[in-house]
Amino acid sequence: xxxxxxLLASKAVPTARQLKWQEYGYYGMLSYGMNxxxxxxxxxxxxxxxxxxxxRLDTDEWARFAKEAGMSALVFTAKHFDGFCLWQTEMTDxxxxxxxxxxxxxxxxxxxLAASCRKVGLAFGIYVSPWDxxxxxxxxxxxxxxxxxGLLTELLTNYGDIFEIWLDCRVGTGVNGTVxxxxxxxxxxxxxxxxxxxxxxxxxPDVRWNGxxxxxxxxEEWSSVPERLYTGDKKLTFLTPDIGSAKAIKKDESFIxxxxxxxVPMRDGWFFNKDQNYSSKTKDKLWKxxxxxxxxxxxxxxxxxxxxxxxxxxxDVSILKNFAKDLKLHFGYNLIAExxxxxxxxxxxxxxxxxxxxxxxxxxxxxxxxxxAPYIDLYFDxxxxxxxxxxxxxxxxxxxxxxxxxxxxxxxxKMHTVYxxxxxxxxxxxxxxxxxxxxxxxxxxxxxxxPQIKYxxxx
Length: 459
Prior knowledge:
By secondary structure, this protein is of the alpha/beta class. It is 22% helix and 25% strand. Strand 3, helix 6 and strand 4 (164-167) form a beta-alpha-beta unit. It is globular, with a radius of gyration of 24 Å.
């Protein structure tokens, strides 16, 4: 009997840590370090520790700015490719404890920023590069793995809860011209033991990198993907245009939950460079990136970078603060929850009623299992003005929807299709032409198992 790959794919579900991570949606990666001082995107590992001398670094200001930019969390570059460590590590002298000209060698930016994030309610994450251009044991096998696990132990023990650790996928030669074969299983096991609620991104099993600084979500973006995407297959990579459609998975029998994180820098590079002062992404570009990530079943990690003194450029500040205002303006309300009601073509039972669609609890709507094209109707007593529909699947039980349509009434009251979509997943934001209507219908035209919709809003 032939295995139904679509049904198998729908059975892959997220872990508790992946579910929590998905809720963060939009957050920042704050890139700062020796590269900031030298003006290099990738340092060489030879810059002297005394070269690191921020004149007015204030992590409280960093955290407040991220909060004002609408972000939910910050991931900090604790160690980049150059190997310079921005905390009080016992594993190497190539760190802040050798910066005797700055805070007498006692500075700890990881500790300061972790505390600053907690003050304003941001989650805190850590980027740490396994590739190291400075450490002499790099490329020697176990000795370097011991060294790197020592770094991980410090970072995951001394700085409170970490929501995400980013292990950079870049691999290159070290100081001796050798390449390290990382013991990733050991790294992952250590991270799990120290921070069980922390997702591992980049070189990790929890969160999938988008594969490029300029690549967003696909037209059909699936979190349930063939297991071979993670275990290794030359024909299936992070940049493969189609990794989850019915056609792409028809021969697969093993699937994992591996959601996408779109990581893009605010400027051309991740670290501050004064030559890029006017390369910042416009507010319109950020809006498109948001729709193509958060609005298309992915999380959005935007790279932000202070200058040598620790300040963010005024252009970046202005754009990001105004972008945050736009997000609040667009999504700070739900017309259906405030002035409308939701009904459906059918309900599996009263427990799975359409009333759950505007409830912030754990409930969800689910139609009878034999419905071929189930639908949801959204009603208002009087016509309302809107231009966006937001929909979320109950991903706790997997990702199921392959396609849907949005219908609105014409002048004669006849329903006609105004939007055709593919996947939904954690969140789907449908941009519509600005309309004034008293009714919206959403029809689910293809799905791998009975749809489960957790939330709907009109904005």
